Amino acid sequence: MSETISKRKREHIEVINRDPMVDRQGGFFDAIQLQHRALPEIDLQDVDPSVTVMGKTLSFPLLISSMTGGDDNLVRKVNRNLATAAQITGVAMGLGSQRVMLQQPEAEASFQVRDVAPDILLLGNLGAIQLNNGVTSEQVQDMLLRVQADALFLHLNPLQEAVQPEGDTNFAGLAARIGQLQAALPVPVVLKEVGAGLSVRDIELGISQGIQWFDVAGRGGTSWARIEQHRRKDDGQLGFTLQDWGIPTPVAMQQARPYMQQANFIASGGLRDGLDLIKSVIIGGCLGGIAKPLLAPAMESTEAVVAVIESLKKEFVTAMFLLSVQNVADLRLNNALLMPHCQPN
Ligand SMILES: Cc1cc2nc3c(=O)[nH]c(=O)nc-3n(C[C@H](O)[C@H](O)[C@H](O)COP(=O)(O)O)c2cc1C
């Protein structure tokens, strides 16, 4: 069973490398247009992109979204390169699903990144569906302690599971279990999707269960329906038909707006440059998350990951300058930075 999980993680990476169309390139952030300032009245040198999230200071609001982990050399290398780069550049990182740790002790090493990333905001990860498969709060707490995570990403992936050949599809009664887990853990649970978005009803259910953090992980980037279709032995179309199912990330953030007083939001899914990132913050994100664009660099080297992150940062800082905004706090939910036709009603 656990060897199967490591093998599956490896297959996901192979599919992503083989089929460029698993990145759906939705371009949904293009519809958000920002107000250029020709007379910004600030010095580019004075722009400060740093933020503090969950008590940790980041050099700018970037999260390396959860990707991988397991008993596999490639996966170990990917996580180490991502974590080392996160430490060097001062950004946050999510680990991939730690479910494999529960069944295969050898997999644990791939999640142990604190030796190279002692200071970063680090989030552990588990599929919420595992709470319906008997995984207990004690096991989850132990899993988080072992990797010294600051919080837990609990992912909701009904579309992926429905298309996955060996998928788990019993999502009945999960909300209450999520609430019990949050009540038992000393760290925040961040409820996330994996590329199809969280709806208003999902957010309301989460809040009713004591969840205070959400990552909408919407549509526009990596399509798990398409990835899993490649792993199906049948010649059907299920995953291709559903490859663009879901709520586009900016729409999910827009819908979440009424809840941004009570809860904290991360925007991810299809962010592809520093402009998508700054737009994510303007529409209410504490952080913006990026996964797939960092995978190929992470398979190469730490330096390759650092180079991508540094260009994202340069784009983000340049956009702050051109918006005449010196601090990230002045970006968040600032409608005046959006062109009038892009402003929420
Ligand atoms: C190779 C790969 C593996 C992933 N594995 C996980 C995972 O284990 N747990 C999780 O919550 N999300 C996982 N994701 C989903 C991402 O965290 C993210 O939500 C999604 O890919 C959308 O971001 P993107 O469009 O920037 O890739 C994975 C994504 C990629 C590309």
Structure description:
- The chain is of the alpha/beta class and 345 residues long.
- It has one domain (2-31, 60-320): Alpha-Beta Barrel (TIM Barrel), CATH 3.20.20.70.
- It has 13 helices and 10 strands.
- It has helices at residues 2-18, 73-89, 99-103, 137-147, 158-163, 174-184, 200-208, 224-231, 238-241, 249-256, 274-282, 295-300, 302-322; strands at residues 51-53, 56-58, 62-64, 92-94, 122-127, 151-155, 189-192, 213-215, 264-268, 287-290.
- An 8-stranded parallel β-barrel has the order 3-4-5-6-7-8-9-10, surrounded by 4 helices.
- β3 (62-64), α2 (73-89) and β4 (92-94) form a beta-alpha-beta unit.
- The mean pLDDT is 96.
- The protein binds flavin mononucleotide.
Reconstruct the topology from this structure.
Blueprint lengths: L1 H17 L32 E3 L2 E3 L3 E3 L8 H17 L2 E3 L4 H5 L18 E6 L9 H11 L3 E5 L2 H6 L10 H11 L4 E4 L7 H9 L4 E3 L8 H8 L6 H4 L7 H8 L7 E5 L5 H9 L4 E4 L4 H6 L1 H21 L23
Parallel strand pairs: 3-4, 3-10, 4-5, 5-6, 6-7, 7-8, 8-9, 9-10
Antiparallel strand pairs: 1-2
Helix pairs in contact: 1-8, 2-13, 11-13
Flavin mononucleotide binds next to helix 1 and strand 6.
From the structure above, extract its key features.
8-stranded parallel barrel; 13 helices; TIM Barrel; alpha/beta; 345 residues; two-stranded antiparallel ribbon; 11% strand
Count of DSSP-assigned helices:
13
Run of helices and strands: HEEEHEHEHEHHEHEHHHEHEHH
What percent strand? 5-15%
CATH superfamily: Aldolase class I
Q: Label the overall shape.
A: globular
Q: List the domain count as a whole number.
A: 1
Label the CATH architecture. Answer: Alpha-Beta Barrel
Using the coordinates shown, work out and report the CATH topology.
TIM Barrel
